[in-house]
N-acetyl-gamma-glutamyl-phosphate reductase
Amino acid sequence: MQHIQKIAIVGATGYGGLELLRLLHQHPQFNVTAVYNTSADNPTIDSVFPHLKGMYNLTLSSFDSRLIMQNNDAVFFATSSGVSKDLAQPFIEAKFPVIDLSGDFRLTASDYQHWYHKQPADPTLLQQAEYGLADFPTDDGINATYIANPGCYATATLLALAPLAQHDLLDPDNMIIDAKSGLSGAGKSLSTASHFINVNENFSMYKPNEHQHIPEIVQQLHKWQNSIKTIQFTTSLLPINRGIFISAYVKLTQDITPEAIHKLYTTTYANKSFIRVQALNELPNIKSVVGTNFTDIGLSYNPQTRYLTIVSVIDNMIKGAAGQAIQNLNLLAGLPDTTGLSLIAAYA
Amino acid sequence: MQHIQKIAIVGATGYGGLELLRLLHQHPQFNVTAVYNTSADNPTIDSVFPHLKGMYNLTLSSFDSRLIMQNNDAVFFATSSGVSKDLAQPFIEAKFPVIDLSGDFRLTASDYQHWYHKQPADPTLLQQAEYGLADFPTDDGINATYIANPGCYATATLLALAPLAQHDLLDPDNMIIDAKSGLSGAGKSLSTASHFINVNENFSMYKPNEHQHIPEIVQQLHKWQNSIKTIQFTTSLLPINRGIFISAYVKLTQDITPEAIHKLYTTTYANKSFIRVQALNELPNIKSVVGTNFTDIGLSYNPQTRYLTIVSVIDNMIKGAAGQAIQNLNLLAGLPDTTGLSLIAAYA
Amino acid sequence: MQHIQKIAIVGATGYGGLELLRLLHQHPQFNVTAVYNTSADNPTIDSVFPHLKGMYNLTLSSFDSRLIMQNNDAVFFATSSGVSKDLAQPFIEAKFPVIDLSGDFRLTASDYQHWYHKQPADPTLLQQAEYGLADFPTDDGINATYIANPGCYATATLLALAPLAQHDLLDPDNMIIDAKSGLSGAGKSLSTASHFINVNENFSMYKPNEHQHIPEIVQQLHKWQNSIKTIQFTTSLLPINRGIFISAYVKLTQDITPEAIHKLYTTTYANKSFIRVQALNELPNIKSVVGTNFTDIGLSYNPQTRYLTIVSVIDNMIKGAAGQAIQNLNLLAGLPDTTGLSLIAAYA
Amino acid sequence: MQHIQKIAIVGATGYGGLELLRLLHQHPQFNVTAVYNTSADNPTIDSVFPHLKGMYNLTLSSFDSRLIMQNNDAVFFATSSGVSKDLAQPFIEAKFPVIDLSGDFRLTASDYQHWYHKQPADPTLLQQAEYGLADFPTDDGINATYIANPGCYATATLLALAPLAQHDLLDPDNMIIDAKSGLSGAGKSLSTASHFINVNENFSMYKPNEHQHIPEIVQQLHKWQNSIKTIQFTTSLLPINRGIFISAYVKLTQDITPEAIHKLYTTTYANKSFIRVQALNELPNIKSVVGTNFTDIGLSYNPQTRYLTIVSVIDNMIKGAAGQAIQNLNLLAGLPDTTGLSLIAAYA
């Protein structure tokens, strides 16, 4: 276990990078000492982002893998999809700690090509990366140093279904996920879809059954419950800045009381600091987790239709990106996974 | 067919009543001449609602069934549930035209008691009321004069499913409705749930499988497709003023191509002025219908899971309340159902 | 007075043009028969804007002044600034009725150049256009057929100050306007400033004392009160779709009671259908006018500081653009100015 | 200087109290060990506020001054106005450290009675309290232990004007403050004004020249610049959760260049950790400070009108309430005032 203190961020000017800068400022051990972007000029970061004034005295530098490893103890890739797959090799070869927030190392080569419509990373590199669902750290990953941080929708969905999938309780023919996300999930780029007038006072479904987080959900569920091969998954846009709300409707393979289902959830998550299972029939809302690394989960069973409704909520920028990334680095650094992440939601 | 011109509104100070006043001001034949509320004092309506200044010169009066029928040609009940059931009798006996926006006359007595937790109307009165899904006017209702205007969620859901239910195509075990509504659906009363701080930047599910619109949905679907006895139905609150978004996930009883399903929808709705079926795989959003009496419907089929996703959107205050009520009175008055309702959504 | 019925819209795909299409659909006499844009292809308008489906059966055509005049009775220019100045000449020469929603014909050539940083229209053309503040139609403009429709901020500000300026009551050294607008005022173009994440839950001031509506405000105030040569004017962005809120703080040149000031306002606006002066000390809010052509005005006097606070609110897309444009064409066509514009705000 | 570690909060269930709980959870030295409310029952705080689950294990107790002082080192009063004036005496007499977030100890008895319409605290108690504008700690307050934490509007306004007032540069006849606040400033109580439908997509001015923060602004400005006796001050409601935006328009008593004014600001605030003066002509927006204890200030001068526009922005719940309260207790405890308050705004 190496001592990790000096942190570099590649892709520091996107939403994910800026959230890392915000959260890491509170971390008692990790200290951001270098920030990188892809453009040629090298401004100070607070000249580009005035809200960082007085908090960081850093200059954006051009990417240089050798210098990053020389001067830092770990690096976050907060880059768009298709970037880190071309940058990762020297870090993987050097076993240098990397948390990759992009989708480049989450899937098999063929799945990546199919869902991202891009050339995948080299398969030998892919094999050395580990999918890092931080609340379920894998035993065999103890030596992995390249962590593929899960997607935001995937995190919320997998934590909603894990207790059932791990016990082979999901009926693979009856799993419907209606997922909704705030706008920050769509990133910084300008598009008609992110224009205020088109989002405010609106709600729209996009990419039904085509979202690129679907394969990583299926891949992980399949590991837990072999019979799962696909999932019904739609994504919609909420007129809010942050938050993911998963409404999952599932049937079970066994006849089991709502109380027993609830018990399964509380047991599974008893020692997970960041997962809060509500009382049976109490459903969480987005505000309770925005600004935190929590996943709140609620359950409601309909005896007429035999559908179980599972609601899970996260902050897509924290638990769904930067927060889970820090949680993963905490684990890699041998720290309690809550280090620097004990955040409470704003009530008003 | 009677000539209907002078209109009274009972419950004019609630959201539904105010929306009737707004829409009827544009109607070429109907003219609001009397407004009623339940409180004792009798202010002018524009002193209570300054936005009506210059548009209506009316005084709120106390309810008097005899005077209403004497001075008007038809009446809208825009009252809360539990009110019109005690006021309806003289109107029904006189066969005086009534459009009732509340839930009091939509259900059987036992369903009403079960879902509304209130004493139902007299069953002999209930029998004389007709459930008025305005885009599917019933042949046998030609002599009914007491129209139970459908609920907002029910309208959007029934129009989403009608073409399938009417052809016995819905698999009753696989119908999941994830419904979302803007805040105006919850009405004017003050509650923690309607406080700005608790709604803004939030999203929450409420009353899962317990919303009082469920029985009217099941009742009507059952008329269309005898095998339907229940439905999986959850409701969530969107941080917007207006709009309902229905995400329906259904499996079909027959193997049928997406193109054929789409054809069924376009055929069913070919002559319905207020229903617009999008091209296959194009999904409507809320903004396209807010401010209008339209229902926009979109379809997307997932061959892996065999689930059909149906999206339908309406303005809950117009198609889901006041607009459909006017559409119903248009039909009763022998006018084209679009009279006074050819409204276009604001784009910006 | 010519009979005007067939209407063309140039720039039909911007916010202003789409709002004209929406409002004119309700007009009893004007009928949009042709729409023009600047791009080369000619799609149907409802294929580009699905919310228009079933309401307009029009194809976007390329601009052709001869055809426009041949086939129509009047034209609206809903183009960006810098466009109509190059298109206007044939219409002006033919005395063909034009309502120009852009800023191209509102100012003197030198003011235009200074504030818009563009080449102005030919001064001989400028002279033949009339600034059309619709609630104060000028006597000498009776023969003008090219109407420069006022800017949104200018409309709300001028109507807030007119009664005082017309009586030389404004102290020119103490006129502070703090103006706020919803996002639709900024138009359709994509920019960091219109990205949802940057607008939602935010408020920002922009272009302090540099907004291009300032010179048209000063120009008109100066006509009313010769001593006015400049104005303190800031503009801010509200996280809402529509609405302008003007907070004007002024000192008066005479000692006059609040009641007398209020009387001056009610007298000035007694016969203006679209201006509603609230009771003294009652201040209007944006919701009361959104969706309407109204200007609501409120007054509050502070005897300690001797500042009069004037609040005026409009819907920037209606009274501030398309609505006033129709009001102006109503006047040109000899119709009551309220024709097709008797709209009530949505309460919920 | 006493060692302060154990903290009690009286009024822990209001917005201010909940924000204290949220922020103090991050504080390295202060530790909330007791929470009080006024109701009779004693639930655990996380049963009432699920978002606190896992973060605080506290039971709400009934107020008892003796027990509070016995078991804690300092107390925050986060009570509504009119409460702490009746609770303060034993704490003041014992010189027990109190930070009072309410308005009860900010004003003279007569001002309090006039603006709050309530009986004031005992004048001998009032004299022992100190107005705690935390960025300008007073020398003579070194022994004060009862700190009246400033109001939110007052904080943002005073920091906007301090550099000018301290140099007698404000023209007392030309100071116009147009202040806007998000909804959390209005607190938790249910009212028509806080119903989502009435706030969302709206903007309204309230209490023009009557807000209860006006007298504390004037009182403090008067201390800095003797000639100031009143101020023109209006308050408006923004449709957002958090944030205050002050637009101040002032004339100066001397002819001074914009650059020199800007210099005055940067000099005054050079060593204040929480005040960030933007470059001349750059104006801050609300998002840059929400979630932080910062005050961002921008300046823009209009040579035509000779008005200086000053913009200042704060998070009303942090700098305007709980954050400044902690800053004040840091000072009282001899800690750097930034302790536990080095927070960065969320960018997305």
About this structure: The first helix of chain B runs from residue 15 to 24.
